[in-house]
UniProtKB/TrEMBL annotation:
InterPro entries in the record: Acyl-CoA_dehydrogenase, Acyl-CoA_Oxase/DH_mid-dom, Acyl-CoA_Oxase/DH_mid-dom_sf, AcylCo_DH-like_C, AcylCo_DH/oxidase_C, AcylCoA_DH/ox_N, AcylCoA_DH/ox_N_sf, AcylCoA_DH/oxidase_NM_dom_sf
Keyword Oxidoreductase appears in the UniProt entry: yes
Organism, as annotated: Nocardioides aromaticivorans
Protein name (database record): Acyl-CoA dehydrogenase
Record text on subunit structure and interactions: Homodimer.
Cofactor(s) it depends on: FAD
Family: Belongs to the acyl-CoA dehydrogenase family.
């Protein structure tokens, strides 16, 4: 096994480290202040537009895109360490146009979109001229099981008519949001995993209503997590993404790389938390000496270092499998890293909060926000239990005896 980065990844990593240190991290407080000062708290602040301009100038743009010739052309394994670097800051991914939900939406547009759909939606997203949202989760059902989805997509001549209620539709409150990718049932009588479709819905279409902005543990995201109703929304039939009945397959194709992105960002969050923990332990005195001399704090630091390194290697393996054998072959690993990375990140952040004491639960550091985010992401993109169920089923298949031997 060769653990060296490719020459291109090493170069981009060095440039990203500089970009983060010189531009992104110093801009965090400015970003929060400008968001608070805006009449619309969901409007992109000027400092982010400035960061994105610098990122473009430095060639640090759309690094996530592995499909076609529109992105940087990196493999999943090449992009993984870069996702970790920008993941250290909550605003890092947005600065280089590699933030959710746009990344997943852009990937499926690149994979399944028609030439016209790509021209109308993908190209403006890649240029960050518009933003997008993904509407799958529903408040009334456990929609981590796609079979439960109740929203409907019904063909009516040259149009589809859409009805449903979604929530945690991330990105919907950004004034620049122009596109919603909507998942619903197009044929309830079809085979189980051919009932769902995805369709492209303009955010300003008649019948689309944002009911409220939903917080995560009290934090309101700049992009917004909306509860949205769709009432007799009509869109042209050519807005169907891929083919009718292909929604579940598209969702699975979207989630593999997306989970790798989430995992590497979580590792970046954990590294930031570990750094803050060490800095606090070295500078804060209690009971006659620095916290760093306390055995329990040293254990937290040691365990955090090991756990972060372990999940990083696991994530690299998943990325390598996606590159060499395809997303389907990496299904178990992609599920595993989503579980393990979030659990490790949350655990490390929790230790850092404890090390910082009262300051750790305030907004004086980024730790409280990281704590909320790493906990919420154990529910988002499929809860931990669903991924564990999938992993267990794959593992049990290895021991599945022939039916005739079960008597």
């Amino acid at each position: 096994m060769d653990f060296e980065f490719t020459a291109r990844t090493a170069d981009l990593a060095a440039r990203l480290e500089t970009f983060m240190a010189e531009h992104v991290l110093p801009a965090e407080a400015v970003y929060d202040a400008q968001v608070a000062a805006n009449a619309n708290p969901h409007e992109q602040p000027q400092v982010m537009r400035d960061l994105q301009r610098v990122a473009r100038e430095q060639g640090l743009w759309n690094l996530f895109m592995t499909h076609g010739d529109r992105g940087a052309g990196l493999t999943n394994l090449e992009y993984a360490p870069l996702a970790e670097i920008v993941g250290r800051s909550i605003i890092g991914n947005e600065a280089i146009n590699c933030s959710a939900p746009d990344t997943g939406n852009m990937e499926i547009l690149a994979m399944y979109g028609t030439e016209q759909q790509q021209k109308e939606w993908l190209d403006p997203l890649l240029a960050c001229e518009i933003r997008s949202a993904f509407a799958m989760t529903e408040p009334a059902v456990a929609s981590s099981d796609a079979r439960n989805i109740t929203s409907t997509i019904r063909r009516d001549g040259d149009h589809y008519v859409i009805n449903g209620r979604k929530w945690y539709t991330s990105g919907i409150l950004d004034p620049d949001c122009r596109l919603i990718i909507f998942m619903g049932k197009s044929d309830p009588e079809a085979p189980t995993y051919r009932q769902q479709s995805m369709i492209l819905v303009p955010a300003d279409a008649d019948g689309v209503e944002v009911v409220r902005d939903l917080p995560m543990f009290g934090y309101h995201d700049r992009l917004g997590h909306g509860e949205v109703t769709f009432t007799d929304v009509r869109v042209p039939a050519e807005n169907i993404l891929g083919e009718e009945g292909g929604g579940f397959a598209i969702a699975q194709g979207r989630l593999g790389p997306g989970r790798m992105h989430y995992a590497m960002r979580a590792i970046g969050m954990a590294e930031r938390a570990l750094q803050l923990m060490c800095q606090r332990a070295a500078s804060r005195e209690a009971f006659g000496g620095p916290l760093a001399e306390q055995g329990v704090v040293r254990e937290w630091i040691g365990r955090s270092r090991m756990e972060i390194d372990q999940i990083r290697l696991h994530t690299f393996k998943a990325a390598w499998l996606m590159d060499t054998r395809g997303n389907a072959a990496a299904r178990t690993e992609a599920a595993a890293i989503k579980v393990a990375a979030m659990e490790v990140a949350h655990k490390v952040v929790d230790r850092a909060v404890q090390t910082w004491g009262a300051a750790g639960v305030s907004d004086d550091t980024v730790l409280a926000r990281l704590y909320a985010l790493t906990r919420a992401l154990q529910v988002a993109d499929g809860p931990t239990e669903v991924h564990l169920r999938s992993i267990a089923l794959q593992e049990l298949k290895k021991y599945d005896a022939p039916k005739e031997a079960r008597a």
